[in-house]
Known about the structure:
Elements: E1 4-12, E2 17-19, E3 25-27, E4 33-34, E5 36-40, E6 54-57, E7 60-61, E8 65-73, E9 79-82, E10 85-91, E11 93-94, E12 96-99, E13 104-106, E14 112-113, E15 116-119, E16 129-132, E17 135-136, E18 140-149, E19 154-155, E20 162-168
Parallel strand pairs: 1-9, 3-10, 11-19, 13-20
Antiparallel strand pairs: 1-2, 1-5, 4-7, 6-8, 8-10, 12-15, 14-17, 16-18, 18-20
Amino acid sequence: IAKRGITIVGWSDGTNSYSVSGTIALTYAKDSYTLTPVADDGNIIPGDEANINMVVSGNVGANVGTYTATASLEDNDNYEMLNATKDWSIIAKELIVVWSKQGTFDYNGKEQGISVSLSGIIDGDIVNVTTTNLTATDAGSYTAKVVSIDNTSYTLPDYGLSYTWTINKVAIKG
Length: 174
């Protein structure tokens, strides 16, 4: 006697539903995501529900990476799971680069410069940023750049990673 199939028709993260054929790429949020399979129970014979125990593994994740969720049945001779595996991922959260407003200075013989900060970091996370040309002493035009960050749970955008600023020459009065 062939086993009756219980088909997984989708997955849910508690907020959104996903088809079995679609991609599931959730953005890093620090807290764990839990995917729950959505089964089509139309093939279950009435009264058998109490004897069916679905077990799900690989469906919980918090860190950036790829996961495989699998739904199976615990000790069941009459039913089998169909469409029971789903690859899913947590992708890095994109940050926003914020440059200081002041970008023009008059030469004063001292080091001057601009600052940069990152917006979108989740409370408690630490993201260190590597930059170039934030400060200078001599008159001239400088291009400050955000080069990289050190936390793989986050990513930099494709735009706004550089900012041009100036130290103006000062006319000598005499």
